[in-house]
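2024-03-11 09:14:02 INFO queue: dequeued item Acyltransferase, len=261
2024-03-11 09:14:02 INFO validating residues
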Amino acid sequence: MPRRRIGFWYRLAAVICKPPLVVLLRRDWRGIEHIPAEGGFITAVNHNSHIDPFAYAHFQYNTGRVPRFLAKSGLFKKGFVGAAMRGTGQIPVYRESTDALSAFRAAIDAVDRGECVAFYPEGTLTRDPEGWPMTGKTGAARVALQTKCPVIPVAQWGCNELLPPYAKKPNLLPRKTHRVLAGPPVDLTRFYDREMTAELLKEATEVIMAAVTHQLEEIRGEKAPETPYDPRRERIEQRRRTQAQTHQKSGQTVQEEGLGK
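2024-03-11 09:14:37 INFO prediction written
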């Protein structure tokens, strides 16, 4: 399947976005040889800054294989941003609606047309205290197993030093380096032609996230935690801690009232 042409809107976005990125960030980009020259594929990318989608798109643009991101549907509706999102072929995600599966179908169609679809499997900025990838959602694995396309694990680091997760102000000085390392395709063949159960998708997702984390370990020169940060598990633990504190305070109140009699 031939590659899709970059097109007017992507070139315009590059003209607008590349100059400030070049000024703000040095580049250390490796693994470009693993980006397929032809045919549809997926990249699975870690997410640790509000800036990194632009910096990662810059990396991918320079490979000649522009990415189609999955993005919130509201970004497509108004003004220049909406026109640019539509013109560059990004994929709207309609959450909690009857169109929620349309992004999945659009991603499959894009891969089948020979395009690159970029997934942030974590679904949001990492909440890991040290910036490591969290547990992933199953969308990338679902598309990969449906299409049997290559899945390229990509790790990036440096935008989070320029603009840390959930920070409002950037740290401009000293100038930061955007490091990207793309790895060889993740081997998912053992999951092919099997019933696509929740357990199968979870296992395939863990394999993808382990590959992304391995790339980030190489960039950072250190080992990631044995168990990835799990936001769902953390929310459950937080509720338990809150309930325990509430019960403890209630017990203290009862005891104080009893002593006051």
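2024-03-11 09:14:37 INFO annotate: The domain at 8-229 is CATH 3.40.1130.10 (Glycerol-3-phosphate (1)-acyltransferase).
2024-03-11 09:14:38 INFO item closed
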